[in-house]
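Q: A reviewer asked whether we had any structural model of the full assembly, not just the individual parts. We don't, so I'm hoping you can provide one. Inputs are below.
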Amino acid sequence: MAKTSLDAFLRSADTLVEKGKGESKPSEEKTSEEKKPQSFDRIPQNLPPSYFVSATYDGKKGSARLKLYEPKSEKIYYWYDNTGHKPYCLTNLSPIELEKIDRLKTHHGFDHVELVKKYDPLLDRQVTVTKVVAKDPLAIGGRPVGCIRDIIPQEYPKTTGIEQPVKVWEAAIKYYQCYIYDRDLAPGMLYKIDNQKLARAQHETSEETIKKILELFRDESKEFLQYIKMWARLLEYPAPKFRRVALDIEVLPPLIEREGIKTSRVPDPREAEHPVICASLYGSDGKKRILLLERDSIREGIVKIPSDVSVEYYSSEEKLITGIFDTLCDYPFVITFNGDDFDLRYLFHRAQKFGFRRNQIPIELGRRVCLLTHNLHIDLYKFFFNKSIQIYAFSQKYRDLTLDNVGKALIGVSKIELTKPMSQLTYTELAHYCFRDAEITLRLTTFDDNLVMKLILALTRISRMPMEDVSRQGVSRWIRNFLYHEHRRRGMLIPNAEDILTLKGTTATKAIIKGKKYKGAIVVEPVPGVHFNVAVMDFASLYPSIIKVYNLGYQTILCSHEECKDNKVPETPHWVCKRQQALESLLVGALRDLRVRWYKPKSKDKTLSAELRSWYDVIQSALKVILNASYGVFGAESFDLYCPPVAEATASIGRHVITQSIKKARESGIEVIYGDTDSIFLKGPSPSQINSIAKWSEKELGMELDVDKIYRYSVFSSRKKNYLGVFPDGSVDVKGLTGKKRHIPMFIKEAFDQMEERLAQVKSPIEFETAKKDIRKIVQDRYLRLKRRDWGETPDELAFQVVLGKTPERYTKTTPQHVKAATLLQKRGYELKAGDLISFVKVTKDPHVKPVELASNSEIDVDKYVAYLQSTFDQVLDAMGLNFNEIIGLTKLERFM
DNA sequence: GCGGACTGCTTACCT
DNA sequence: ACAGGTAAGCAGTCCGCG
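A: Here is a predicted structure for the entire assembly that you could use as a starting point for your response.
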């Protein structure tokens, strides 16, 4: 092994010469015979219980290939399908008619046809369709032209006597997904292989728990209970340890001159023109390695690297790349940050440049992804990019999608700052820089007891997708997938999106916002002022509850039965089926109930072990992510079961429910000071009043309305979605106020925070009066500091920070201020793209904005900042009976002038 | 030619 | 590539104005 310990590293000069001669060949040794069968190509006769983590189609074998993670040896094993399962699609054209299509019969991928019975959920009846079976999945629908789904004609001339339009179903489903559905497999669960047969491995302790869970739902229907049981089985199962390695590479691009400054461009992974000079591999097993390419240009003295990190030198780039590949194959899971688009893609092309043969590169190159042949690649960039994950799993803790930002926000570790170009770094600097990236990447998956890995596993189980897919795709795919799975399991035809739309595509309400498809939620006009003793009641998962209780789904909305037409959705012409149960209603309903009644309470149950509690917490947050999107997807055109009236009905029932609740509260003599979508803010309610409202809701609406939080007091202006509440423990809940928004200058935010601190101390209306005096002082002080231009050496504190929604060139309709500033930056040679954060200040001279890094104190337009200070504080001042102008000492006359 | 009223665009937020 | 509703600031447009 060409490993050099720290000591050797310090004596690097000698080592360099030695390797330069090529005497030590780490890579060749590692790929030798004894290694290979150990690390992959494992096709066992019998396999101890292993987690089914991924599935693909193997073109050479012509069958599904599953990857199983065996948690004891911590290795990936393969299993190839041996049941003869084949890809197919369905059509309503009869075998006789299909027989007449020459291009189908002679298609190289065509196998045979057979008749099958299915239930058509749109027609609500049994149908017989033809299953067109193919030899390989690409023959069905994988290619742009000439695949079976296009060959089966869409229209027939009248003379043929074929009346109904010809349809093809289920042709766009990925083969491995189809395989999972048909065999009712559960990704993320334990399987074993007995005599070459794949079978579920049971888990004893979770069966005990499932009995307990079922008892919670004794009143529910048998069908519903089955779903509770199915989900509980998937979710109770504990998670294994995932042995994994984080990878990060550094590439050396040439220097270019820009405005006299030497910089470089980000290397293009498709071209892979420049050398890979460093790679870091940070293993969950504690193995930490830095692989460096020897370069003549580097001379350096004594260096420091933590002693548990091994540093290895490679005399050529080929050997370095081989070294990386060998390690990647050693681990069942490989973690990167943007490896799909950079690290793995670069390595793939770079290896090709060096003439590596296809089987020497363990990377499967896709258009948007880079998977690994023998194991699994999780790209954390894709996972953290997911909006639902950002908001609901990590409550917006990170906003900029860079490794530095996510690292800082979630684990408190930043990237190492580079002060010079890559080419001028010493080995130590380079090693440190690269290593830190790999460290952050791995630690993003280990923090909070491996939260991220567990979350991905939980989502894998719910969505029934391979781990690689679930970590890369959005919530609408997850939801579509478990719904598709259920269709197959129950012998239901999976409808084509256009058929749902033709039959049930209309909405009837008018949205308040221009350009939206239907009316959404209600926001109650707040009662301005300071209110003491406020109880906030809300419906736990309102929309999922509605979907469950009102039996909503694409099948049941606007169904074909006369008898159901009187089962109207309030404020709409829509009706809901009384005969059939919607799949969405059952599946989403069961998930909701499990979260609210089991996982959420268990995640806080101190009698459980910390380990179990943490698992339950993962489950409840995975469920939260799914449930929060379960209504929205029906209104999203990109969703494959897109059904606008389902979304519209959900929102409409939501409005009905909240309106009824407000009415009930007022009738009980409680003042409702605010409400938004699923919540009502009650002023000074008695416990019995709260109790009676909760009871009423349960009985009349069939939904749980509970106290969510209590405020010692709350402050409302007349603005909706804008308020401040102080909890009994003194912590402050700020919603929607400008003072809390991320884009405002620190200088203003600081003043706002001071006010918040002061408000936290207020316990009674009397104390409020003295707090008001202090708040006046806070505002006054900020105002005077602005007037004195007293904010520091640089205008940094005054910078607004706004995200670029798109590349600057693509703002064609207007040019907002941050875009003006961005353009100025571009002129200086910065490359800007969507998602970049622009920091700018307001100045007196013409475009009135300037990027903060180009601005000086003297140019600042103080009046603009005073105006901004005013509008920020106005949101709370008027509620407290204060006036900004009066505070800063303007007389009425001065204000008028 | 200029200012006010208006609409539209954009971002950040709430549920 | 889940929805709609709200606030705020600014860009751009229209219209009146002897």
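A: Points you may want to mention in the reply: The longest strand of chain A covers residues 47-58. Residues 1-40, 891-897 of chain A have pLDDT under 50 and may be disordered.
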